[in-house]
Amino acid sequence: MSISILNNISSLVAENAVSTTQSNLQNTLTQLSTGLKINSGADDPAGLSVADGLGANISALTQSSQNASDGVGLLQTADGALSQVTNILNQAVTIATEASNGGLTTSQASALDNEYQSILNEITQIGSTTNFNGTSVFSTVASSVYTSDGTTSGSTNTTTAVGALSATGLALTGNLLTTTAAQASLTAITAAISTVAASRGTVGASINQLNADTNVENTEVQNLTAAQNNVQDADIAQTTSKLTQYNILEQTGFDALSQSNQAEQNVLKLIQ
Asked: What are the sequence ranges of the domains in the chain?
């Protein structure tokens, strides 16, 4: 084996090994501090792309679940208002039935009609003032709930339109001033109760659909989050083991570098 003083090859080898070990050690410490095995594109380009794609899907589905919840809130508000309308109409049935009976004085019929007109006004007021998050619940303008998983093919719109609500819209335009008018109004009130019941049924079906959508979206978020974790989360036990390994390699590398430098100094002994 020749002896050289111009280039200390063993020292260069040890220095490169220490540099590589320190780079690996730094990467391992980063993984332990962040809990992620992918902290930059250099760590795993393909894995980073997959993880970011899953993250986009998760974000879209999470917001879609909130959109659906907002839609349920609007529909539940509508259902509550329609329930109140049904109660009011039941009161109107009682009044109209009483007014349909003969033997009432003019003032009595007028009093019953005044109460009935107040009920009609209250129904119209409910239709015009009921709102959810600043949006009118009973509107002729169709609204919808948008849900998506972040892809074009995974997007849907669920209509949540309830329709306008008013006494006129329910064909309640009569009076109770005569028995004939009262009986005609009673027929209209009964029909209006059926109309409101049908609307509540439609609203209820939409609520069930949106709740089902929310459940599906939450399940997808759970599954996609698990998949994302598998791609990007660090295995703490394995990473800790690597930390120990690289710490030992760093120490032995420094020792080897020291020994190689010492060997170079021994050349001087040959010329003393």
From this structure: 9-35+234-271, 60-232
| Per-residue confidence band for 10, with pLDDT thresholds at 50, 70 and 90 | low
Its pTM stands at 0.74
CATH class assigned to 60-232:
mainly alpha
pLDDT in tens, 73-117: 999 999 999 999 999 999 999 999 999 998 899 999 999 999 999
Burial class of residue 103 in the structure, from the number of CB atoms within 10 Å of its CB (0-12 exposed, 13-18 middle, 19+ buried): exposed
CB-CB contact of 72 with 211 (8 Å)? yes
The 3-state secondary structure of 48-95 reads HHHHHHHHHHHHHHHHHHHHHHHHHHHHHHHHHHHHHHHHHHHHHHHH
* CA 193 – CA 212 distance, rounded (Å): 29
Burial class (CB in 10 A: 0-12, 13-18, 19+), 87: exposed
Mean pLDDT of 8-15: 66
b/e for 214-236, b at 16 or more Cβ within 10 A?
bebbeebbeebbeebeebbbbee
Q: Which residue has the tokens 């006494």?
A: 167
With a cut of 60, say whether residue 257 has pLDDT above it: yes
Nearest to 172 by CA among 121, 125, 127: 121
124-141 pLDDT tens trace: 999 999 999 888 899 877
Q: Closest by alpha carbon to 62, among 271, 216, 266, 269?
A: 216
79, 144, 189, 262 from 168: Cα distances, Å: 20, 26, 12, 103
pLDDT at 255: 67
Instruction: Give which of 160, 159, 186 is closest to 172, Cα–Cα.
Output: 186
Predicted pLDDT of residue 1: 47
- Dist CA 272 CA 267 (whole Å): 9
